[in-house]
Amino acid sequence: MWNDYALARGLHVLAVLMWIGGVGLVTTVLIPAIRREAPVGQAYARFQAIEHRFAAQARGWVLLAGVSGAWMLHTTAGWGRLANTSWLHAMLAVWGVFFMMLFVLEPLLMHRILAAKAQRDDAGTMRLLARMHWVLLTASLVTTLLGVVGAHGGWRLGA
């Protein structure tokens, strides 16, 4: 039987899959392909043209992950767990970083800074972008693993 928690959890899993899957695709496929295939001096512009279309989807998935996570905490009266559950802190921190990047820093600041840097050093800008994406992907995967393990009581060795 479906209930609020089951619906929220399903939406949360979907949002996290799409969010982290998108970051994974950009990090491991899109950026390397653009760095390899784009004409000299045009890599960052090509990346921006593609990434701009993906950013709207990413914003939606990050918002859905936040809303569904809050919904799960509300449904289970789990707000008190925030005070003493480190894996929730880690998940909220990564969510906060992505929220800030997607809704504040990237549209208001990062695009201008990176575009100006790309005018001077397109290849260097793409290297920086690749490193930033690897850091974000690694943080996302680690906190997701912490959340899965933490939510299920940790690792159980033996019977």
Features:
mainly alpha; 159 residues; elongated
Give helix % range: over 70%
What pattern of helices and strands is seen along the backbone? HHHH
The DSSP helix count reads 4
User: What is the CA–CA distance across the termini?
Assistant: 30 Å
How many E-type strands? 0
Please provide a written account of the structure:
The protein is elongated, with a radius of gyration of 18 Å. Helices cover 83% and strands 0% of the residues. The chain is mostly helical and 159 residues long. It has helices at 4-37, 43-75, 86-120, 122-151.
How would you summarize what this structure contains?
The chain is an all-alpha fold. It contains four helices and no strands.
List the helices and strands and how they pair.
Layout: H1 4-37, H2 43-75, H3 86-120, H4 122-151
Helix pairs in contact: 1-2, 1-4, 2-3, 3-4
